[in-house]
Give the backbone structure.
Amino acid sequence: MKRPCLRDIVELVGGEFSGDGALEIEGVKTLADAGLTDISFLGNPKYAAQVDASHACAVLVSRKHPADSQRFVRVDDPYVALAMILTKWFSAIPGPAVGVSPLASVAASARLGNGVAIGPFVSIGENAEIGDDCVVFDGCSIGAGARIGSGSVLYPNVTIYHGCILGERNIVHAGAVIGSDGFGFATTGGRHMKIPQIGIVRVGDDVEIGASTTIDRAALGETVIGDGTKIDNLVQVGHNVRVGKHCFLVSMSGIAGSSELGDYCVLAGQAGLVGHIKLGDQVVVTAQSAVTKDWEGPIQLSGSPARPLGDKMRSDASLARLPKQLERMKALEKRVAELERKLADKGE
C-alpha cells in the first residue's frame, strides 16, 4: 500500500495542521525513536519534554496542548487518531494467501465464504462455516458445526471447539481455546463424576481474544461474550458466564462459572470473580481484587474481598498508620507503668 502524505492523515483524523501537507510518512514511532519521515504522538503529558528533542516530522497532539509548532497535528484525542492511522496504513500483517492451503484439512460439508485465506495444517470440521474474508493462520482447529463470522482473523494454533459461534470481525490470538469443557463435576461415593458440558460459546462482533485465553463452553445453554469486548492474554472465562458489551478483561483475570458482567465493565490484571454473582454496568475491578458478591454499577471495587475503592483506600491508610500508633501505645504503656510504680513507691 502506498504510504500516506500528511495531508491524507490530517483529513482522516479531522486534525488541524499548518505545515507541509505533501510530506510522505514512512512510519509511526515513539517520540524518542521517530525519524524525519515518521509521525509520532503525545498521548501522555508526562512525555511533553520529549517533543522538542524528537526528530518526527509531525506529532499528534491534543487540541488543548499549550505549546505551538508547525509539526503539530491537533486532534481531539491523539490515541484515537493514532489508532485510525495505524489501522488504515500501517497494520497489514503477513498471513496465508487467499484460498485454501493444500496442507489444510477441510471437511467436504464445511462452507467457506468468499476471499477466505486458510493456512497450512488448519483443520475444519464437518458443517463448519467460515465467513467472507476470514483469515485462518496455520495450525488452527475449527470443530464440527462451528461458525466464524466474516472478516475474522484466527492466529496460529487457535482452537474453536464444535458448535461454537464467533461473530464478525473477531480477532483471536495464538493458542486461544474457545469452547473447552467447563469445570463441572458431581461428587458421589468419594469420586468426581464429570457433568457433560453440552452447551456452546457465543462470541459477539468486534471482539478481540488474547493469546492462550480460554473460554469454556456452557454446561447447558451458552457462555456469552458481548459485542466489542476486548480480552487480554491468559484470561479464564468459566462455563455459562455472560460478559456484556465493550468490557475489558485484562491479563490473568478470571471469572468463575455462571457469573455475569454488565456492559463496559473492567477486570484489571489478576482480578477474579467467584461463581454465580452479577456485576452491573460500568463496574471496574482493580488489579488482584476478588469479587465475592453482587454489585451495582457504576462503581470501582478493590481488595479481597472487593469493596468500594474509597473504603479500601481508607483501610490501607489506617493500616499504614498502625506501626506508629503501636509505638505510641507502647510509649503510653511505659509511662503508665512508670507512674504506677511511683505511686506504689509512695504508698498511694
User: Anything to note?
Assistant: The mean pLDDT is 95. Residues 112 and 135 are 11 Å apart (CA to CA). The longest strand covers residues 58-62. The helical segments are 6-13, 78-90, 309-346.
